Automatic annotation (TrEMBL), chains A, B:
<feature type="DNA-binding region" description="H-T-H motif">
    <location>
        <begin position="32"/>
        <end position="51"/>
    </location>
</feature>
<dbReference type="InterPro" id="IPR001647">
    <property type="entry name" value="HTH_TetR"/>
</dbReference>
<keyword id="KW-0238">DNA-binding</keyword>
<dbReference type="Pfam" id="PF00440">
    <property type="entry name" value="TetR_N"/>
</dbReference>
<dbReference type="InterPro" id="IPR009057">
    <property type="entry name" value="Homeodomain-like_sf"/>
</dbReference>
<dbReference type="Pfam" id="PF13977">
    <property type="entry name" value="TetR_C_6"/>
</dbReference>
<dbReference type="InterPro" id="IPR023772">
    <property type="entry name" value="DNA-bd_HTH_TetR-type_CS"/>
</dbReference>
<dbReference type="InterPro" id="IPR036271">
    <property type="entry name" value="Tet_transcr_reg_TetR-rel_C_sf"/>
</dbReference>
<dbReference type="InterPro" id="IPR039538">
    <property type="entry name" value="BetI_C"/>
</dbReference>
<feature type="domain" description="HTH tetR-type">
    <location>
        <begin position="9"/>
        <end position="69"/>
    </location>
</feature>
<keyword id="KW-0805">Transcription regulation</keyword>
<keyword id="KW-0804">Transcription</keyword>
<keyword id="KW-0678">Repressor</keyword>
<protein>
    <submittedName>
        <fullName>TetR family transcriptional regulator C-terminal domain-containing protein</fullName>
    </submittedName>
</protein>
Length: 196, 196
């Protein structure tokens, strides 16, 4: 007999939670039905009910990662201009264990995303949405005179996004050389560079 | 009868070549004994002779990637100072199909490297060696008066390395929005920011 609908939904939430724990601990490359089943103390048979293929599991994992990331984003106070750009970039850096886990999941997902046209298109769209949000802060900073009038918003946005993601990677590999204070100082140095 | 030593060496070079082609086409996540065997038109049985485990294959793949990357590095002419820093950073960007393949391999390797202590230590050391080479250019630029006297070489080096790696990732996912000329322009914009 298939489980009742309420049970199914509850179990689905359990599955998502287990998927997230595996992702945060092992990265996307370590995500297997077996690892998720072990995390739930369940059988891999149960898991195949939700994920008939490895690809289905990976796709679900990236949906879970996106939900967690949206929920994680700091409710930035009503900052505007350069302060809001800084807050948005700080939001992305691995300044806390939770932020490091989040970033580790995304960095580990690039392998699969570069290899799969659908996942690649999703990641490309995700990066573009992120740059879109950053761009609004850049434009606001320029309007407030915090960035030079001649600032090219697309270029500064692309540059800030690249800088921040590269710093994410280096800090993930080398947390001892890139503690939170240094990440913040490097970001502030970068921001001084763009204010001209 | 085991193959003669010369055969063995020649076959090993064939294996490395096949490993590299699989890496460049599918990333580290797509690297399997079966894929390498197919690329060589050989049996997976032959491959297990070289790589008894998946981990042995991944370790060899990263050695191959390191060799290819060293061989790929542009023989930068005798530039010094800021010009040499710029040349060294341009060397890393995916400005050509070969550069894109190289970068794709490294970005795809981060999943496995973050999950495996030994691979992680290797990648950490590789990043640190790279920053060490960049730092020499930064110091030379400061000595030549191309960077402000008060430039903190470690900070500018870390910042330039982060910026460049982040740009690599964005350009890999979005080659249409990040063609070579734009990557170069973004790098030049970044360099203007550090010259104060």
């Amino acid at each position: 007999m298939p489980p009742a609908r309420g049970d199914h939904e509850a179990r689905r939430a359990d599955v998502s939670e287990a998927v997230w724990r595996v992702l945060a601990a092992k990265g996307l490359g370590g995500l297997t039905l077996r690892a998720v089943a072990a995390e739930m103390d369940a059988s891999t048979g149960l898991l195949t009910h939700y994920f008939p293929t490895k690809r289905a599991l990976v796709r679900h994992a990236l949906v879970v990662a996106e939900e967690r990331t949206s929920a994680f984003a700091r409710r930035t106070p009503e900052a505007e201009g350069l302060a809001s750009l800084r807050a948005a970039l700080l939001d992305v850096l691995p300044l806390t264990p939770g932020g490091a886990a989040m970033n580790r999941v995304w960095v580990s997902s690039w392998d699969a995303s570069l290899a799969d046209p659908e996942l690649r298109a999703n990641e490309l769209a995700r990066l573009e949405r992120w740059r879109g949000r950053l761009r609004a802060h850049v434009v606001s900073a320029r309007e407030r005179g915090e960035l030079p009038e001649e600032t090219d918003a697309d270029e500064v946005t692309a540059s800030a996004a690249a800088f921040t993601h590269g710093l994410v990677v280096h800090a993930l590999f080398d947390p001892d050389r890139f503690p939170p204070e240094r990440q913040t100082a490097l970001l502030d140095g970068f921001l001084r560079g763009i204010t001209g």
